Amino acid sequence: MALARYINWPDTLAFIGFPDQWDPDEILKRLHHLQQMKRKIWTSAYIVSTNGNPVRKTEYVVCHVLDNIANARLEFNKGDTLVATSDRLLSFDGVGTFMAGQIIADLKNTPRHPLENAEDWWSWCAKGPGSMRGLNRICELSLHSNWNDGYFQAEVNRIRKAVEERTGMLLCAQDIQNCLCEFDKWKRVMAGQGRPRQTYPGVV
Fold first, then answer.
1. HEC sequence for 88-121
2. What is the pLDDT of residues 134-167, one digit of tens each?
């Protein structure tokens, strides 16, 4: 799941194949082949950086981040929570709150994975700068207001329950967090405060 989230580009993942046996050298070889072919490797949905390390992104992600995660051989058990899993993932260098949340979103939606029945499946989410700005806009606060984890989780779940009561839609806290992030992007564009990194065809 970490490999899929850091790359997050279907063609690249298809070329690598599912890593039944973790082999960083083989994955690097395939990524370098794509680079030589001048093929797109990484997602455009979000930025994957080397966090200031003076190495190529392929080496940093595969050899520094993913290899450490693979070698840790994390095990998951019935009763594990999303918040505890987030803490485990954040212990790895190169894994921030955003990426930990994305990996957890995939794990908890994987049938028969222990996190599928986590007690905080509906209520937990990882705060990020975009979702905090979106929440600040809704609450009419300064865009730079910071939220501690407890207040952020409580407010997200208040919105989640309001959405369910008004629309009948069942959204988990991570869904609401994503909506807050997209809401912030929309408001920035509408207010002339910035331009979107990605555009999509559609109608309003």
1. HHHCCCCCCHHHHHHHHHHHHCCCCCHHHHCCCC
2. 999 999 999 999 999 999 999 999 999 999 999 9
